[in-house]
Structures are given as C-alpha cells and as structure tokens.
Write a structure and sequence with these properties.
The chain is of the alpha/beta class and 325 residues long. The protein contains 11 helices and 12 strands. Strand 1, helix 1 and strand 2 form a beta-alpha-beta unit. It is globular. Bound molecules: nicotinamide-adenine-dinucleotide (NAD) and serine.
Length: 325
C-alpha cells in the first residue's frame, strides 16, 4: 500500500490536504508531521500516525520515511511571508534546509515530492496583470527568496537526478477549517470570520490591494491533479502558475455586505501592504490548463456563500456548546 508523508500537517493547507489524501490512501496511509501534535483532545492519536519533528532535522525525517515506508512527500512546512519578514534567518533555515533535506532523502529513498511555491516569487518588476509563467522573478521578501530558490532547487534535482518533484505557485488560499499562519493574504480569512461572527473588521491592507486568491477545495484539487498527471505531460519543472480569481479588500467587503448587510470594513494598512504591493494582481495559468487540464470551480461569490455557511454553522455549534457547558 502507498504511504504518503505530509509535513506542516497542522497548517491551513496541510489539515485539509491530509483529509483529501486519507480518502485515497486510508487513514493509516497518511503520516502527518509537524512541530507540535495536532490541537484537540485526542492529540497525536486522532486520525492516524503523527510524527513530532522539525523538518530541519534530517535524521528524524529519514527515520520517519523508513519507519512508515513512505513513497510520496507533500512537503508543506514553511514560514509564510509576514512571519518570514519578522524572522528572516529562521525563514531561510526552515524553508531551504527543510526542502534540501526532503529532496536529498527523496533521491535516496526513491520518493515523489510535492512542494508548494507562491505568488511571492514575483516582484515589483514583474508584469502585474496576467503575470506569465516565464517572466521577471525578483522577490522582495525572504519568503519569496526562499520560494524562488526552492523552485530552482526542485528543477535542478529533476534535471540532475531525475527526481519526480512537482510544484504549484499557489495564490492566497482561503479556507474555514484551520486558521492561516502568518501570511499577507490572510486578511481575507480574517474578514470572513469577522463578518460571520457579526463583527466589523479593520483590514491591514489598503482597500484596492488586488491579489490573486483561491478557495481551498480548488487548491486541493489542483494539488492532486498535478500529482496524478503523467510525468510526460509536464512542461514546467520549477513551479506552475495556477489561478482562480482576484479581488481587493474592498471587493471582498462588498461581496460580504451582500450577505451580511450590517458588516463594515475599515482600513489601517501596516507593513504587510508593502509585501502586497510587490505581488501580481492576476496570474496567467495557461501552462497548467494545457498540461494537466487545470480549471477552477469557485468564483468570489460561490466561495463567499460557502465560507459564510460553514463559519456561521461553526459559530452556532460553539454557542450551543456554550449553552450546554
Ligand atoms: P501554515 O503556516 O498554516 O502551516 C505551516 C505548518 O508548518 C505549521 O503547522 C507549522 O507548525 C509547520 N512548521 C513550521 N516550521 C516547521 C518546521 N521547522 N518543522 C516542521 N513543521 C514546521 O501554512 P499553510 O498556509 O498551510 O502553507 C503550507 C504551504 O503552502 C507552505 O509551504 C506555504 O508557503 C505554501 N503556500 C501557502 C499559501 C497560503 O495562502 N496559505 C499560499 C502560497 C503557498
Ligand atoms: N498567501 C501567502 C502569504 O500571504 C503567499 O504564499 O504569505
């Protein structure tokens, strides 16, 4: 049976990718790894194997790969853009050392690898609209530097060692199950959560900061589609542009006000605005569409309805538990 390892499994993406992978590989076929056990009363034991380890620890990764007979790694563990600017040395260490460990072990143990890149590889000289697959890549953040360096490392390992490593440049990911961790696009999830809980929101980006975004179910589908595509179909071995839709904070506030009429958003931008300023407004993902038939299913309105349904239901459950408790 096939066994997959997900690093950064407790995170916004990892927690949902694990669920999707379990439906393919079974609960015991998906091994989660993170710095801390998952939150919740069952901790480690909930839903299959869990390894507490740091991806910078090559020996711990090697032990895990051998113990669980891993054949594919989804290497998600990373510091994101805003946290990376607060801790640039740590961002370099975790993002680069972790990836190098995974790629080297993948060569030794004959593993396949998925590793996410980001729109953070682009920079102020990159064309902002319909940013092409091949273009100027001049990241301004340590996070973006590690993502572009990681892309080049992945391509090198593919060319030099024949390693089957695949990658997507995700846009900002939006989801309701697990809170995001230290990104610039996280304002969108914060705004949804506030609106669903009847609170107003103060946004840390400016009202017109338009960025590419994607709803989590599409991000999971893109990931699995890329990993299931035949190797000979793939023309991009650094990282595929992948897109769904773009919006600004004021677009999102307006979409929310169509459902929550008394919701109000104010703006007090901080240092994260500078990060957003360097990123594209929209992405050309023709290569992904051509090579492995990528097409998104959610637009802003469909995502907004689904997000609000889930967040409002979660809030009702919390209130019920409060009444019972
Ligand atoms: P997240 O911050 O929610 O989760 C990252 C997880 O990695 C956390 O659970 C954290 O504990 C773990 N981690 C951090 N350092 C570690 C270490 N040294 N060893 C082991 N685990 C460690 O991030 P996410 O949003 O789930 O992102 C997952 C991946 O997707 C990252 O590589 C990120 O760069 C990429 N990505 C995310 C977005 C997005 O909008 N969320 C967009 C583009 C790319
Ligand atoms: N969404 C991520 C961030 O804002 C980009 O990779 O950091």
């Amino acid at each position: 049976m096939s066994h997959v390892l997900v690093t950064g499994a407790n995170g916004q993406l990892g927690s949902e990718l694990v669920e999707a992978l379990r439906s393919r590989h079974g609960p015991s076929g998906v091994i989660r790894l993170d710095l801390q056990p998952p939150p919740g009363p069952d901790g480690h034991a909930a839903g299959g194997p869990f390894v507490v380890a740091d991806v910078r620890d090559r020996e711990a990764l090697a032990d895990c790969i051998s113990q669980y007979q891993i054949d594919t790694v989804y290497h998600l563990a990373s510091l994101l853009s805003a946290t990376g600017e607060q801790h640039p040395d740590r961002a370099w260490d975790v993002n680069m050392e972790g990836l190098k460990n995974v790629l080297d072990l993948a060569c030794t143990h004959h593993l396949r690898v998925f590793w996410p890149s980001s729109i953070a590889v682009f920079g102020p000289s990159t064309p902002k609209a319909d940013t092409p697959q091949k273009t100027v890549l001049d990241p301004t953040t340590m996070y973006g530097v590690t993502k572009r360096s990681g892309e080049l490392l992945c391509r090198y390992y593919h060319r030099r060692y024949g390693l089957d490593v695949r990658s997507l440049r995700y846009p900002g990911l939006i989801s309701h199950k697990t809170a995001p961790g230290g990104g610039t696009t996280d304002y969108a999830v914060d705004m949804y959560t506030s609106a669903a809980n009847g609170r107003d929101y103060t946004c840390f980006l400016e009202p017109d900061a338009c960025l590419p975004m994607m709803y989590m179910p599409d991000a999971i589908r893109a990931t699995l589609s890329l990993m299931e595509a035949p190797a000979e179909a793939l023309s991009v071995r650094d990282s595929y542009n992948v897109a769904a839709f773009s919006f600004s904070p004021q677009d999102l506030a307006a979409a929310l006000q169509r459902h929550v009429s008394n919701f109000a958003c104010t703006y007090a931008s901080d240092e994260r605005q500078q990060i957003a300023d360097a990123w594209p407004a929209s992405i050309d993902d023709t290569a992904a569409r051509t090579d492995w038939n990528w097409t998104p299913t959610y637009d802003l309105d469909a995502m907004t309805e689904d997000m609000l349904d889930h967040l409002q239901e979660d809030e009702r459950l919390r209130e019920d538990e409060g009444v019972r408790g």
